Structures are given as C-alpha cells and as structure tokens.
C-alpha cells in the first residue's frame, strides 16, 4: 500500500503507537591517572544498561507532486528506572571529549610556529584530559567545560567558532523537530517497489562529508520498506547521525511466532574503510590509505565539528584486533553485540531488531602541544547502545496474515522497528548542544500544503 495522507498506513507511519527501547551502556575509565602519568593501558568497565523508551513523530509533512513526501522527525526519550541497573546520578569517568575536539582542531588548523603560544594558554587554563560526570549529564543534561570558554581566548589563533556551549550525547535532542534534519522519501505512489527510498537529506542528494559513492544519500530511513525487500541479499539504511548509509547482509531464514522472516546482519564490511575492502576506501578521511584507521570503525569527524569520533560495533566486535590490544576491558560477543534486523518475507515488516553500535573517541599525542603529550594513541570507547524492538507473541497471534499484510502492511514496521532509530548517533554521536539551535530555516517544498 502506497503512503498518502488518507491511507490507512499514514497514522501508523506518522506516530509510533508502541514504544521502542534503547539500552545504553557507559564505559567507565578506571585508571586515567596511571594511563596519563605512567603509560598504563587504559582499562574500561561497562556499566549499564540505562534503559529509555523512544517514540517517533513525523512533523512538517509535505506531499509533493513527484510522488515523494518531505518531513521532519521528533524523537522523545524517557528513562525507565525499573528496567535499568542504576540511576542517572551514577558517576562515570572517561576522556574529555571537548578537549579532544579542541586538540584535533588545533592540530589541523594552527601553524606550527604558533603552537607554543596556544600550549601556554592551555596550561594556564588548567583543563583536564578526563572528566567524571553523572550519567544524566553525559546523556541528556549536558555540562559546561573549561575548553569551551577557552576557545574564546584562542580565537586570535584558531579561526573556529564551535557551534555548541554544553557537551552531552543527547543534549537538545529530546523533543527537537530540527535535529534529525529534513528527509525526502518515495511514497510508492508511482512504483510500490520504491516505497521508502530516500532521495535527499537536508535538501541534498549527497552529504559532502565523504567522497564518491560514500557521500550519496541512499537506502531507506529504516522506517519504510518496499514489499519485496526481504528477498534482497543486502539492505541499506541511511542514518543522519553518521551522515552516511550502512549496509546489512542477508544471514538466514528464520521464524518468529509463526511468521517467516529473513535476518540481516552487520558484518565486517559494514565499518571497513578500504583497508580490507577497496570499494569502501571513500570512507577513509585521511590522506592516503596508509593513514587510515584499521578496519572496524568509521570516521565521523567530517560531520561532527571535527571531533575525533568513530562508530563501531560494541566492544570492537568484528574490528581489527589492534583496537582491543590498545585498551583492556573489551569482550566482544556475537550474541550480545551483533547488529541484526529480521524482516517478514514478502512485505518487509520488521519482526525483531537489535541495532547495536558503539561510539569511540580517538586520542593521540599532538606534536608541539605538551598539554596533550601524555595521551596514548588509542581508540577509547565512550558508550554503546542497543536500539531494540520486537513483535510480541500476543500481537502476532491477534493479526491474521490477511489483516497483517493488507491492512497494516509496511506501517506495522513503525510500531516495532528500531532500525529506523539506527544510531541515534547518538547525536549520539557527538553530540553536543548547539547554541545556535535556530538555524536558518528552508521551506520543505514550494508547491504543497503541509499536513
């Protein structure tokens, strides 16, 4: 069934009637002083999960004459204490992400002859390489950091205006209609087998954050699929949080509550950057393949204010062993850390989704800046999450195949799907609070009325 303002599927697409969940696991750095002063290997312990419900609502909907729909999305999260192992006041220690972002910018922009002046300013401000904050501060509340005010003093040397005044992975995201951006998607009106296909994100068919095919807006947003999608060998999901698409591959045929489905997984190619699979080299942002990170992480710095942020599977599952060799406390497991999505055959309705991803910050000494001299060269894990949803046995038993396929069709996806949230990333990934939240608005389209 094609999507329209009068279709039965519209209400279920516009607002998810059932909650999705996101389980967040924080990494606590247990030996920062020994690492920075004695060169000890950084050790991390996983703390969590901290569980939140997640709801999606489409807003500013515009139906276009070319068979597409443009829209924004509001996401809301609510903490669920009884499903969590702790509370939002638990203290977590990890690397100072703001300090690492500032360092990366300085390294890239400031001439070497001006570095001694900048280094003197850094020492005078007495900023810290690591922070201890509550889970609430690190996630939704955010916190102030000396390095943000420090940037004002560095303006004569660093021509950068950081677009945020507080740091937090989800700051300013809860209930925001602007954060996720503007999507343009096929409604399936002219061709049902193009249903859900994305054509543009923020009015562009390419993100410009990567090169070549890696920059293209392709796949679906994860919340609408054509009816034959489960017959494909691969499926693609575009995630604004990582400014790119991710490809899942068919793994096996399975069954859930009597409904046959196809399970897709994220494999080792998903976060390769050309070091193993040459066709992925456009995901490497470094000059020359010899400077690319080992396979298993994707560089997000180009779309995250220059922050040295990387996405991977949890605990560096399927990543090059070197990542786990440089830190301790990682225990990758296929059962616990694999990214999976099971879609019903013929119609593509998600039966079960476990979208598991990890956010990391790359740190290294910066030549000419003694302030950063004690840092190891390593990828430090910050947090990982599982965005999960599953059709219930009760729901499956109540829905006959005819009703399920003809009445609900694709839209049931929206009631149970976690792939659409695919990476929140985070902000989750970097995300930081933007002090210029009221960015210049553009019309979604010129000729149509909004819902």
Task: Explain the overall architecture.
With 451 residues, the protein is of the alpha+beta class. Helices cover 18% and strands 29% of the residues. It has eleven helices and 17 strands. The protein is globular, with a radius of gyration of 22 Å. The relative contact order is 0.18. Residues 405-451 have low confidence and may be disordered.
- Give me the number of helical elements: 11
Question: How much helical structure, as a percent, in the residues?
Answer: 10-25%
Number of folding domains? 1
Strand content: 25-35%
Query: What order do the SSEs take from the amino end to the carboxyl end, as H and E?
Result: HEHEEEHHEHHEEEEEEEEHHEEEHHHE
- Given the helix and strand composition, which structural class is it? alpha+beta
Query: How far do the termini sit from each other?
Result: 19 Å
Q: Mind summarizing the main beta sheet?
A: 13 strands, antiparallel
Shape: globular
Radius of gyration: 22 Å
Got a strand count? 17
Instruction: Please state the average pLDDT score.
Output: 84
Can you tell me the residue ranges where pLDDT is under 50 for at least 5 consecutive residues?
Answer: 405-451
Q: Topology, please?
A:
Blueprint: H1 9-14, E1 20-29, H2 32-38, E2 44-63, E3 68-79, E4 91-95, H3 97-109, H4 115-125, E5 130-134, H5 135-141, H6 146-153, E6 164-167, E7 183-186, E8 198-201, E9 234-239, E10 244-256, E11 259-265, E12 298-299, E13 309-312, H7 321-325, H8 334-337, E14 340-344, E15 350-363, E16 378-390, H9 393-398, H10 401-408, H11 412-416, E17 432-434
Antiparallel strand pairs: 1-2, 1-16, 2-3, 3-7, 4-5, 6-17, 7-8, 9-10, 10-11, 11-14, 12-13, 13-15, 14-15, 15-16
């Amino acid at each position: 069934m094609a999507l329209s303002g009068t279709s039965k599927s519209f209400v279920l697409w516009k607002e998810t009637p059932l909650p999705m969940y996101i389980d967040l696991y924080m990494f606590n750095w247990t030996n920062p002083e020994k690492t920075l002063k004695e060169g000890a290997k950084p050790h991390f312990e996983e703390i969590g999960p901290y569980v939140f419900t997640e709801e999606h609502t489409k807003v500013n909907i515009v139906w276009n004459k070319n068979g597409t729909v443009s829209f924004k999305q509001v996401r809301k999260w609510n903490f669920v204490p009884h499903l969590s192992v702790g509370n939002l006041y638990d203290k977590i220690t990890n690397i100072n992400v703001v300090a690492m972002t500032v360092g990366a910018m300085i390294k890239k922009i400031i001439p070497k002859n001006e570095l001694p002046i900048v280094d003197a300013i850094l020492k005078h401000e007495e900023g810290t390489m690591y922070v201890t904050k509550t889970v609430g501060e690190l996630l939704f509340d955010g916190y102030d950091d000396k390095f943000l005010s420090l940037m004002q003093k560095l303006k004569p040397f660093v021509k950068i205006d950081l677009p945020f005044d507080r740091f937090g992975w989800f700051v300013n995201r809860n209930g925001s209609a602007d954060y996720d951006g503007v999507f343009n998607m096929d409604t399936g009106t002219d061709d049902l087998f193009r249903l859900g296909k994305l054509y543009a994100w923020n009015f562009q068919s390419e993100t410009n954050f990567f090169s070549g095919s890696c920059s293209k807006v392709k796949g679906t947003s994860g919340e609408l699929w054509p009816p034959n999608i489960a017959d494909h060998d691969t499926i693609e999901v575009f995630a604004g949080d990582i400014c790119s698409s991710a490809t899942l591959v068919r793994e096996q045929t399975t069954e859930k509550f009597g409904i046959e489905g196809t399970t897709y997984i994220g494999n080792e190619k998903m976060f390769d950057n050309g070091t193993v699979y040459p066709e992925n080299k456009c995901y490497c942002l470094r000059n020359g393949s010899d400077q690319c990170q080992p396979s298993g992480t994707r560089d997000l710095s180009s779309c995250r204010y220059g922050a040295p942020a990387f996405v991977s599977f949890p605990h560096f599952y399927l990543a090059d062993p070197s990542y786990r060799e440089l830190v301790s406390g990682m225990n990758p497991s296929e059962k616990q850390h694999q990214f999976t999505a099971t879609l019903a055959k013929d119609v593509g309705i998600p039966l079960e989704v476990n979208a598991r991803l990890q956010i990391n910050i790359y740190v290294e000494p910066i030549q000419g800046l003694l302030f950063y001299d004690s840092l190891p060269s390593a990828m430090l894990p910050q947090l990982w999450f599982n965005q999960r949803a599953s059709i219930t046995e009760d729901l499956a038993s109540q829905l006959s195949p005819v009703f399920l396929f003809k009445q609900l069709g694709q839209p049931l996806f929206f009631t149970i799907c976690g792939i659409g949230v695919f990476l929140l990333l985070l902000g989750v990934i970097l995300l930081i609070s933007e002090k210029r939240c009221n960015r210049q608005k553009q019309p979604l389209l010129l000729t149509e009325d909004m819902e």
